[in-house]
Structures are given as structure tokens and as C-alpha cells.
Design a protein that fits this description.
With about 110 residues, the protein is of the alpha+beta class. It is about 40% helix and about 25% strand.
Length: about 110
Amino acid sequence: MRLSILAAALATSLTLVVGATDANAQKGAYYVAVPEVEASRASLITRSTPWQRRGDAYVANRAPERDVVLCQLLARDLGKLRSFSAGGAALDGAALEKCNTRAKVAPVTAVAAR
């Protein structure tokens, strides 16, 4: 009985620590963007906005561009974004779709016909 209580307490503590770590990764960032495909770049700059990779997301401080424009600039460099939020508010489906219209497209490889 005591062992199961200890195991439950340990599992709960671990869950809280992992959740806190994810939240801390985005702490202090105004913009948080998650690309559909994991990018290997540690940082990049869109116009004058520096972005840093934290886990699977890219984060940045507040910038002068409108949120959708900033999202489009980032999608142009990273490809389609799974999510984009500004000031804690995520773009809705239509705005994210508009953002992703500017996403870079992987080059098409031509296959020779036989």
C-alpha cells in the first residue's frame, strides 16, 4: 500500500516538473511558433526580429510587425507552422492557414519517364 502511494506521488511530481519545464521554455516570450517539421536551426532573424529555438518551438519578443505578417515571415523561412501564438493567444485556423500560404515549399524532384 505504501509503495503504491509513493509511486503515485512520484508520478505526479514528475508530471508537474515536466509541465513546468515546458512552460519555462516559453516563459518571457511574446511569440511562440511550432513548425510542422522540426527545424535544425538554433536561431534565425525575420526582418529585425530574432527567434530562438526552445525545444520544438521558436520564440521571440514583441516585434513591430502585425502578428500574421510575422507568422508569414517565419513560415517563409521554416515551412508550414503547426501553431503560432502572440501574447498567449493562438492564431485561429483561418489566420494560421493564411500564415502558411507563405510557407517555403520543399523542392520537387523530377522523375524521368521511361
